[in-house]
């Protein structure tokens, strides 16, 4: 089986590539432009680690470059495309909304179009819990999507989901949309709360908290990778699934747990941040029922592993 992973040098993409290479399950090709949204060295280090595992093909290409992208599709026969590449981040999307039209919508259209023209059978698209907008504090099931999003990032993901449906209709390939709920773990994205807090606390600095009355359904990276792996050979028309943990953690709870690791922790409180939602909470019944998805890593266990990784990483920079 030949699989193309876009965004393979990213946080989720590199973990997925690592899992697929170690399982020896398929031939993997990665496309990643190494976007400078966050430290490019972290992306290069992930690729270096992946190269130490097993052979795979890597193209440093911007998905917006149609000519180069079409060459990759012409030179290969992919069975499955896992489209993870995007510009992530809610706060930056408020500052630079047009970039999200380019990297999250136009790049997705290019992938969907070339996948269709080259007879790909199944496209998996990385969407986000942010598409649910700021709904009441209750488990969000897939059908609770109502389009009332509160950030340009979320709007771009909604747009990209719609294009997924349109191109599924045009090309008749299976599309599985996976809505991830705040993912964390080793090699995490340095712009997200947990990695950001850990780095600052390891450096003895204060952390900035926007609002303590928020909650997130933090989902450990291994559970997300398991969810994507389960979806790989279950293409079946156009399907949408939540991949979350199903147990939201309040900001107060996160801070209390952080303090148990870093007793000297000091906090700078800021007000509400535009674009954020109050809480996220995944209803994972559908993914459980249809994919067999069952998250197994508790927040306490996942955070312990993430802190341990960060200590090693920032000390010797060679930890895998
Ligand atoms: N991490 C989370 O909590 C989370 C939650 C919900 C959804 N998602 C989605 O999951 C996907 C992966 O997220 P991540 O956290 O691994 O982000 P990431 O930024 O670590 O990975 C995305 C990768 O895509 C690459 N990329 C971006 N635009 C590109 C382009 N035009 N051409 C080629 N490469 C490009 C980047 O260089 C980056 O390495 C994204 O679509 C994101 O929106 C992530």
UniProtKB/TrEMBL annotation:
Domain NAD-dependent epimerase/dehydratase per the UniProt entry, residue ranges: 3-244
Annotated source species: Lottiidibacillus patelloidae
Taxonomic path: Bacteria, Bacillati, Bacillota, Bacilli, Bacillales
Keywords, ordered alphabetically: NAD
Gene3D superfamilies listed in its UniProt record: NAD(P)-binding Rossmann-like Domain
Protein name: UDP-glucose 4-epimerase
Annotated Pfam families: Epimerase
């Amino acid at each position: 089986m030949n699989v193309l992973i876009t965004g393979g040098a990213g946080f989720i993409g590199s973990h997925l590539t690592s899992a697929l290479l170690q399982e020896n399950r398929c031939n993997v090709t990665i496309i990643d432009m190494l976007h400078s949204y966050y430290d490019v060295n972290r992306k290069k280090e992930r690729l270096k680690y992946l190269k130490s595992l097993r052979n795979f093909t890597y193209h440093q290409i911007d998905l917006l470059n149609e000519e180069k992208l079409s060459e990759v599709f012409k030179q290969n026969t992919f069975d499955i495309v896992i489209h993870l590449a995007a510009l992530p981040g809610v706060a930056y999307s408020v500052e630079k909304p047009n970039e999200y039209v380019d990297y999250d919508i136009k790049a997705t259209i290019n992938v969907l179009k070339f996948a269709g023209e080259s007879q790909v059978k199944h496209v998996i698209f990385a969407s986000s819990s942010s598409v649910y907008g700021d709904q009441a504090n209750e488990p969000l099931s897939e059908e609770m999507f109502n389009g009332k999003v509160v950030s340009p990032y979320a709007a771009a993901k909604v747009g990209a989901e719609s294009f997924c449906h349109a191109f599924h209709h045009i090309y008749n390939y299976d599309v599985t949309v996976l809505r991830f709920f705040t993912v964390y773990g080793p090699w995490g994205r340095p712009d997200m709360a947990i990695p950001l807090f850990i780095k600052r606390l390891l450096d003895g600095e204060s952390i900035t908290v926007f609002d303590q009355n928020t909650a997130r359904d933090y989902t450990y990276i291994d559970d997300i990778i398991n969810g994507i792996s389960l979806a790989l050979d279950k293409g079946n028309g156009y399907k949408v699934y939540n991949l979350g943990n199903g147990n939201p953690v309040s900001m107060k709870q996160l801070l209390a747990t952080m303090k148990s690791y870093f007793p000297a922790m000091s906090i700078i409180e800021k007000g509400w941040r535009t674009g954020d939602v109050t809480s996220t909470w995944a209803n994972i019944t559908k993914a459980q029922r249809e994919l067999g998805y069952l998250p197994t890593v508790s927040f306490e266990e996942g955070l312990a592993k993430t802190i341990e990784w960060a200590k090693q990483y920032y000390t010797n920079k060679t930890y895998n």
